Automatic annotation (TrEMBL):
Keywords for the protein's UniProt record, in alphabetical order: Signal
Record GO terms (molecular function): thiosulfate-cyanide sulfurtransferase activity
Keyword Signal found: yes
Species assigned in the record: Clostridium innocuum
Matching Pfam families: Rhodanese
Protein name: Rhodanese-like domain-containing protein
Cleaved signal peptide residues: 1-21
Cited SUPFAM superfamilies: Rhodanese/Cell cycle control phosphatase
CDD domains: RHOD (cd00158)
Annotated SMART domains: RHOD
Length: 140
């Protein structure tokens, strides 16, 4: 009787431990990790300004035309989040270019950055919104 009880306890422990074991990475898991490593980079306004001052970056404003007219960062390219999938190839032809994406508060810039990464852009940086931008702006 003791042997049966001991065997039952041992079997239960083995089943529990097996359920807690980590899965070995599969090809599918490896691809998901690689996709995440291609995600956009989050930076603050200060870092964005430093990158702009260093040159060779494209500032991408993903707000609406009206918001852009009211106030925008000098030399920013307007590619609204709502139409970015249709307009990006024409307005942002180099998928290797360094893109600094922003909107008003940061919500649309994150959405647009996700879309850009999915479209194959490799150097996407997002600093949030123009509301957090303490540097020069222009209006039309």
């Amino acid at each position: 009787m003791k042997k049966i009880a001991l065997f039952t306890v041992f079997a239960c422990i083995m089943v529990i431990l097996q359920g807690c074991a980590k899965d070995m990475p599969t090809e599918e898991n490896k691809e998901a990790v690689q996709e995440n490593s291609n995600a956009y980079h989050k930076i603050d306004a200060k870092k964005a300004k430093e990158m702009m001052d260093a040159g060779k970056v494209t500032i991408v404003d993903v707000r609406t035309q009206q918001e852009y007219r009211e106030k925008h960062i000098p030399d920013a390219v307007l590619v609204p989040n709502e139409t970015i999938e249709d307009e990006a190839k024409d307005k942002l032809p180099d998928t290797d270019a360094v893109l600094i994406v922003h909107c008003r508060t940061g919500v649309r810039s994150k959405q647009a950055s996700d879309k850009l990464v999915q479209m194959g852009y490799k150097n996407v940086y997002v600093f949030g919104g123009i509301n957090d931008w303490p540097y020069d702006t222009v209006s039309e």
